[in-house]
Amino acid sequence: MRTIFLTGGTGFIGRQLVEELLKEEVMIFLLVRSKSKATRVFQKKGFLNEAAMHFIEGDLTKPDLGLSDEDKERVLSTDVIIHAGGQMDIQATTQEATSVFLNGAKHISEFAKRIHQLKGLQQFIHVVGYMSPFDDHNSKVAIDVFKEGHDYLKIKNPYERTKFLADLYIRQQASAVGYPLSVINPPTVVGSSTTGSTEQVAGLGLLVESMRRGLMPVIPGGKGYKLPLIANDALAKFIVQVVKLEPSSIRTYTLVPDKPLDPDIDELLGVMSESMNMAAPKISVPLRFMKALMNSGLSKITRIPSDGLNFITNRTFSNDLPKKVMGADWFTKTSVMNFFPAVVADLDYRLMYPNNQHNHVFERTLIGNTVIHQIQGEGRPFILFHGLLSDGEDLFPLGLELHEQTGQPVWIPDLPGLGRSPFKHEKNLIDLYLNVVKELSGKAAQGAHWIGHSFGAVILLEALARECLDTKNTITLLQPPVTKKNHKSFNAPPLLNKWALKLATANSLERYLIGNGLFENIESIPKHYIAKVRSSFTSPRILNTTLQLNSFLSKNYQGVFTKVPGSNLHIIWGDQDRRYSAPVQLGKIDVVPYGHHFPISHPTETASYVLGN
User: Sign of torsion, CA 486 492 494 495?
Assistant: First the structure.
């Protein structure tokens, strides 16, 4: 069994790497600042393996990494070192960056030397950014990086400069002592290909934040310039394969995709804009001019440091070595563009709700680029579609009740353009949502229990009308908004326009929710619901999608449904709704004494009505 000493194991890349390493016959010693915090991190992730993982308290910035004598002996027994430590902070000062990266490289290299002298170090793996100027051809630069390095590398940004000097220092030490070194150069790292979840918002998130604030009106660099990307699970799998190698020298693996697989920055921004339901920038500006603008004060407005543009490049990279390790088609199979829209939406969601805590009862996955929250179980799944002014998380309590009472699976999508799912332009807006029905129906081959609330109910009605769902499925409609009451005061609700939503206060939202009967009283509004709705409208994606769907519903779905095919239709109606009437033309209706949003305010009672209890 190989033993591995890993730095950065609790970071965005490191956590994914630990998950992949645990699939192998290895023992991992993780350098952490706090054992208790590290334990909580991996417990939340669901793969704390105390038999194969051991936390070692220490600090990269301290001599001997600040380890106890007992922990030093553990580290000196390891076969492989993987150095991926150091927080991503492009705005770090020279002193801060030197302490973490340069001093960290020195301290960990001292352990590598002692291990090699004691027993032979099988391999040192260093993870450093793809823009490092050092590779297998120019790594024998004979300078003292601590005394001469800052003058040698004419790079203004301390974060980049010290990371690259650490790269050179580790190469120098490996060459001098004689142990094998594998340097892995990933491009900008984004979230997992299975979820799109990107917890590290300091990278691509800077660009998403600027776009969502309307501060990305131009294309930096233009044609030929790229922002290469890699998924953290693809990177982790690659590192694990390198661990299995038996190298005898220094090798550099640059994980930048082939140019045809790597879209130009204008195409990338086009995909981002569509995902955010915004107009794409059209005008290209030379990168040098963009940096000058940033340095002149634009950085303070956009919150993107001028050095953040350094990740956009027109350089050509060689990736022959990674292809030899993973296969010639690896970059094609792992292309981030397959799920990039979901990454953009996830970052947008995180910027809206920076303190949101993920509900770990529900697992996240992607079908296409739509986020699906799932609970596993036996039997046919319950598939819940949310309405406007909400997302999939708002139906979690109802989903949990259904699962606990039946043991069956629960699938809750974030509908496109809402929650964590990206928007996508379709010729007919409803087709975007019917595609979700078709994709989920394909996954539920034996049929499902479909439940749609408000706009989600309209989607299911349209799916029935177009015969997208067959008789294997049962359908429950919760408050389908297809019959407006004949009151002029309700025809054009004053809150549902762009600036009213953007500037809405907690009090105005509360008045709207109660006045229109979405909730029957203040007490029925869930805690944090109003704050969440207000935050959601800081996102152009959610704001624009909400307005488009509200207009689409008003124009297309009033009095349209008089009868739909299928006898397995169950309608539940909250009679406190002040804008819509019960659609009696659709069939028998169970009436409940609640407001329009009763599946959100009364999940336990709703589950009982759905199940016929």
Answer: positive
pLDDT higher than threshold 90 for residue 412: yes
| Burial 529-555, CB ≥16 within 10 A → b, else e | bbebbbbbbebbbbbbbbbebbeebee
Radius of gyration in angstroms for the set of CA atoms belonging to the chain, rounded to a whole number: 27
Single out the residue of 216, 207, 209 nearest to residue 311, CA to CA.
Answer: 207
- Kindly state the average pLDDT of the residues 526-541: 95
* Residue 492 pLDDT greater than 50, yes or no: no
Distance from C-alpha of 102 to C-alpha of 134, rounded to nearest angstrom: 15
CA angle 196, 298, 101 (to 5 degrees): 60
Would you call 454 exposed, middle or buried from its count of C-beta atoms within 10 A (0-12, 13-18, 19+)? buried
In this structure, the number of other CB atoms found within 10 A of the CB of residue 376 comes to 11
Identity of the amino acid at 380: R
Q: Over the stretch 87-124, which tens digit does the pLDDT of each residue have? A: 777 778 888 888 889 999 999 999 999 999 999 999 99
pTM of the predicted model as reported, rounded to 2 decimal places: 0.93
Share of residues in the chain with pLDDT > 90 (%) = 68
* Closest to 121 (Cα-Cα) out of 163, 83, 162: 83
With helix as H, strand as E and coil as C, how does 194-211 read?
CCCCCCCCCCHHHHHHHH
CA distance 593 to 378: 32
| Angstrom distance (rounded) from CA 208 to CA 589 | 45
CA distance 374 to 409: 7
Segment 425-440 shows an average pLDDT of 96
Q: How far is CA 207 from the centre of its chain?
A: 14
**Distance from C-alpha of 531 to C-alpha of 45, rounded to nearest angstrom:** 27
- How much is the pLDDT for 300? 66
Rounded to whole angstroms, how far apart are CA atoms 573 and 94? 63
**509-529 average pLDDT score:** 94
Looking at this protein, which amino acid is placed at residue 470? D
Given a cut of 90, whether residue 533 has pLDDT beyond it is: yes
Asked if 65 and 58 count as a contact pair (C-beta separation under 8 A), the reply is yes
Q: With beta carbons less than 8 A apart as the criterion, state whether 539 and 348 touch.
A: yes
The pLDDT tens digits of the residues spanning 254-263 come to 999 988 888 9
Distances (CA, A) of 510 to 30, 248, 431, 506: 49, 67, 32, 6
Helix (H) or strand (E) holding 189: strand 188-190
